[in-house]
Amino acid sequence: MIEVSHYSKRYGAHEAVQDLSFTVQPGAVFGLLGSNGAGKTTTIRALVGLTRPTSGTVRVAGFDVWKEPVKAKAAFGYIPDRPYLYGKLTARELLRFVGQLYKVEGADAEIDRWLTLFRLEDFGNELIETFSHGMRQKVAIISAMLPDPGVLIIDEPMVGLDPHAARQVRELFRAHADRGRTVLLTTHSLPLAEAVCDRLVVLDRGRVLGEGTMDDLRTRTGTAAGGVHGDSLERIFFRLMEEEQEEERQRREVVAAG
Ligand SMILES: Nc1ncnc2c1ncn2[C@@H]1O[C@H](COP(=O)(O)OP(=O)(O)OP(=O)(O)O)[C@@H](O)[C@H]1O
Where is the ABC transporter domain (predicted)? Predict the structure, then answer.
């Protein structure tokens, strides 16, 4: 379970995220959407304990991530948007290290299974520094999945993946949640969000534009269901952005008039 309560993050005078609250229940895939600079990565960094909230609290598996980082970190797997992997290790060495760290039973067999699933079985003994961007992304995904975490947090999962791997990963996240785990992801891929997310938050410049299920957001924006896969969410997304721009315009008019 993930609980974000009145989370705000300020960098100097800049409010990167303002008063964000949401809960992700076990069994759900939750999507954080938004344009560039909306505050998605900032929120993820708070969720995984890399930055301290300016105000509010962030809890993962019941633990305050800032106050009880070790307990919280034992409960989640994290796939960053730009994963750092030890280039001088082979893929298998890195994954064994992760397996030992998280005390994964039967780790060697599991590692083989994952490498085969991602078509990396011939590269397990190669140094990671020789891997392409997509191959590194796959290793990062395997290292997060290997301990079978109760909570999975992913920043931009599809970057660099070929269509086959992207589809696999999408199905993997859905299956993980369907086994009672909690999954949170950020993405620019509206088709991905529409295909796997049970609930969504749409952010813009640090503020929440909309939150809920696809149906909630459709109702809120007066957007009909249907259309090409992913098209429906695209219409919702642009409608929310238009509403925000209109509100911003009205705010400016009030300030100019006053
Ligand atoms: N370390 C930092 N210092 C100062 N400002 C920062 C820092 N990190 C992020 N920001 C600012 O916070 C805002 C939100 O950034 P963030 O990286 O969370 O956006 P994002 O939604 O992940 O964007 P993108 O889709 O482009 O990755 C941006 O205006 C960014 O410039």
Answer: 2-230
